[in-house]
Design goal:
The protein is of the alpha+beta class and about 150 residues long. The chain is about 35% helix and about 25% strand. Strand 2 and strand 3 form a beta hairpin.
């Protein structure tokens, strides 16, 4: 049984997404180890992007995107931090915790861009093992948190 399990899990070639995620996590950990927690998220984003570009990854930064509402599409309503290899959205944060709001935000980005995988890297924690979270797209827009309702402009 162990041999079958080992062949099915450990001997498989990693997918492109797994390779990209592994690269991101290793480089994020290197940035974290070098600078520690607590700086501005833009600083970590610049340092992490520099390291990822050296690996030859296709990266787009601050990608403006919109969302459909009824019959219209509202363009450039939000900006995705980083899109890597057109397969992964990376959000860089510097906060005490990865909150539900961050997860829902990335999940909504995934839903609106048709990208299937998101990653939140939070450089605000004291230990790196608590700093990375994988996010999948929400199944439908009913899952969006409505904590901040739209208000009429007077």
């Amino acid at each position: 049984k162990f041999v079958r399990w080992y062949k099915n899990t450990c001997m498989k070639k990693p997918t492109i997404e797994q390779k990209v995620i592994n690269s991101i996590v290793l480089e994020a950990q290197a940035v974290y180890n070098e600078y520690g927690p607590g700086l501005m998220d833009n600083f970590y984003e610049i340092k992490l992007l520099g390291r990822l570009r050296k690996l030859g990854l296709n990266i787009r930064k601050r990608v403006a995107n919109g969302f459909p509402f009824e019959t219209r599409r509202y363009a450039r309503m939000f900006r995705v931090d980083i899109i890597i290899e057109e397969t992964l959205i990376l959000e860089v944060k510097c906060s005490d915790y990865i909150t539900d709001f961050f997860v829902k935000q990335v999940s909504q980005y995934l839903h609106d861009t048709d990208i299937k995988l998101g990653l939140i890297v939070n450089f605000g924690r004291d230990e790196f093992r608590d700093c990375v979270k994988k996010v999948k797209p929400m199944k439908n827009t009913d899952e969006i948190d409505r904590d901040f309702p739209l208000r009429e402009v007077i």
